[in-house]
């Protein structure tokens, strides 16, 4: 993927960059693989806002991505497409029976090439195999946590994990965050790395562009009144008047650990930095 930096002809354009979409080969999505996306503006089924600063934005459809790739032992890559719902691109594949599906587009994936998903498939980039069949040291993405559930780890643009070791029924995987984790050896993963690795270099550049993404403005708590936020009030540029930053509801914020004790903690060999 290549990034195009726009000319600095206005204040909003200064520093703004966009994707050139060089990897994308098909503009319109496959109609049979999309569903309508209903705008909820961060609200739950009771109408209460559970995710703040959401609402508006350009209309977009949800692409149904197959993170399991089951039932398609061998398929051909038909096209690489843009997905507005994720940072990575997606690939349209078709098997011998004519069935189509979307999968995550890996780095270097090309139209016309073949990919497989099998227990004893060929050890090649973009092929999907169980961790037990992948050589130690290989880079993988779209890693399962529960056998047959589909990939849950390492799915964003440019990310990759490394298969560090295999012992018995479990494999040790080093995640992009630096966390070392045990994963069942019969869980599937795709060899390689997720494509669109330059996505993190894109600079939004303007507030309007963020609004079209469905993100509403965020107001600092310090700029509010005391009855609106615990950081509010005071004269001029005063401090927040608290020992540590908190959320609007008084919970610790900015660096506080939020992960509770979980049954899966036993599978974490080394936590990510800062946790």
Summarize the SSE layout with pairings.
Layout: E1 3-5, E2 17-19, E3 34-35, E4 62-63, E5 74-81, E6 90-95, E7 100-104, E8 114-116, E9 128-130, E10 139-141, E11 143-144, E12 151-153, E13 161-167, E14 170-174, E15 180-184, E16 188-191, H1 207-212, E17 268-270
Antiparallel strand pairs: 1-2, 3-4, 5-6, 5-8, 6-7, 9-16, 10-13, 10-16, 11-12, 13-14, 14-15, 15-17
CA-CA gap between termini:
32 Å
| Arrangement of strands in the largest sheet | 9-16-10-13-14-15-17
| Structural class by sheet pairing and helices | mainly beta
Average pLDDT value? 90
Number of domains: 2
- Which CATH architecture of the largest domain? Beta Barrel
Helix segment tally? 1
| Total number of beta strands | 17
Largest sheet: 7 strands, antiparallel
- Top CATH class of the largest domain: Mainly Beta
For this structure, the CATH topology of the largest domain is OB fold (Dihydrolipoamide Acetyltransferase, E2P)
- Helicity level, as a percent range? under 10%
What is the overall shape? globular
- The CATH homologous superfamily name of the largest domain equals Nucleic acid-binding proteins
As residue ranges, the low-confidence spans are none
SSE series: EEEEEEEEEEEEEEEEHE
From the alpha-carbon coordinates, what is the Rg to the nearest angstrom? 22 Å
């Amino acid at each position: 993927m290549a990034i195009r930096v726009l000319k600095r002809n206005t204040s909003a354009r200064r520093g703004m960059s966009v994707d050139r979409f060089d990897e994308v080969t098909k503009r319109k999505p496959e109609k049979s693989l999309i569903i309508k996306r209903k705008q909820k503006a961060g609200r739950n089924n009771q109408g209460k806002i559970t995710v703040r600063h959401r609402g508006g934005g350009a209309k977009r459809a949800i692409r149904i991505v197959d993170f399991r790739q089951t039932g398609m032992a061998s398929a051909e890559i038909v096209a690489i497409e843009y997905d507005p719902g994720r940072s990575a691109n997606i690939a349209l594949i078709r098997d011998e029976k004519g069935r189509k599906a979307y999968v995550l587009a890996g780095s270097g994936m090309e139209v016309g090439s073949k990919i497989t998903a099998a227990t004893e498939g060929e050890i090649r980039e973009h092929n999907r195999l169980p961790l037990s069949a992948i050589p130690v040291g290989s880079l993988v993405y779209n890693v399962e946590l529960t056998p047959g559930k589909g990939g849950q780890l390492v799915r964003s643009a440019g990310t990759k994990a490394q298969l560090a070791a295999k012992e018995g029924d479990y494999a040790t995987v080093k995640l992009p965050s630096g966390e070392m984790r045990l994963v069942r050896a019969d869980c599937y993963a795709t060899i390689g790395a997720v494509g669109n690795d330059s996505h993190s270099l894109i600079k939004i550049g303007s507030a309007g562009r963020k609004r079209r993404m469905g993100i509403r403005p965020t107001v600092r708590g310090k700029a509010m009144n005391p009855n609106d936020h615990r950081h509010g009030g005071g004269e001029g540029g005063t401090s927040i008047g608290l020992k540590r930053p908190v959320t609007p509801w008084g919970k610790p914020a900015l660096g506080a650990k939020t992960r509770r004790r979980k049954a899966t903690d036993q599978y974490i060999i080394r936590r990510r930095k800062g946790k």
